[in-house]
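stage 2 :: seqdesign
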């Protein structure tokens, strides 16, 4: 059974013993909007440019056809790190190896038991996704979610070390990838790509 805890926004984190805790889902627009409101660090024009790539949808009224719109995409690695700092000292973009460990861990689980204390939007998303996603791998959106920024080869510096992991639905992002095969590289990590979102890890040893 997967142990879940909640982050400061009331969204679930899945604990992987000996590694840390990962966001169960890619980070949602709702979570990122909390960061924006509290820090006042992103303007309306910036957010409109983000939403032009992947429009917003209410966490109350999404379906199997459009649930990818719940998650913030088109985001750059530096912007992800700003959100991670707001989340807490131990939050970070996972490495490729950490992401693959999380994928294998989730893939070996039979069920997910959600904790008490979820925020109302997280609870609504859980209930909505549960209508058409059933296995832990499906429900965690490691398969059928968005592409996710991860830290790639350590020999690369700056934004050049960031690559993508994940297996989006073909209807969202046409592809023939495998989550555990080669990483997805982008030509310019400063160019917004509509399919790229993220989930974070917290390496807190007490998690």
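stage 2 :: out
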């Amino acid at each position: 059974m997967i142990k879940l805890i909640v982050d400061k926004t009331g969204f679930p984190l899945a604990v992987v013993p000996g590694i840390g805790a990962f966001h169960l889902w890619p980070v949602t627009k709702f979570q990122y909007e909390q960061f924006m409101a509290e820090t006042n660090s992103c303007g309306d024009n910036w957010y409109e440019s983000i939403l032009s790539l992947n429009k917003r949808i209410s966490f109350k009224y999404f379906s199997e056809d459009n649930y990818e719109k719940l998650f913030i995409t088109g985001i750059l690695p530096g912007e992800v790190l700003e959100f991670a700092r707001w989340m807490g000292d131990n939050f970070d973009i996972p490495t490729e190896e950490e992401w693959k460990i999380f994928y294998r861990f989730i893939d070996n689980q039979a069920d997910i038991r959600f904790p008490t204390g979820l925020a109302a939007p997280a609870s609504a998303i859980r209930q909505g996704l549960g209508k058409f996603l059933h296995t832990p791998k499906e429900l965690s959106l490691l398969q059928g979610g968005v592409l996710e920024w991860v830290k790639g080869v350590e020999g690369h510096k700056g934004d050049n070390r960031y690559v993508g992991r994940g297996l989006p639905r073909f209807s969202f992002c046409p592809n023939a990838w495998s989550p555990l095969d080669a990483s997805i590289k982008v030509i310019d990590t400063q160019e917004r790509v509509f399919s790229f979102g993220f989930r974070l890890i917290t390496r807190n040893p007490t998690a």
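stage 3 :: structure notes
- The chain has a mean pLDDT of 91.
- The CA atoms of residues 29 and 76 lie 14 Å apart.
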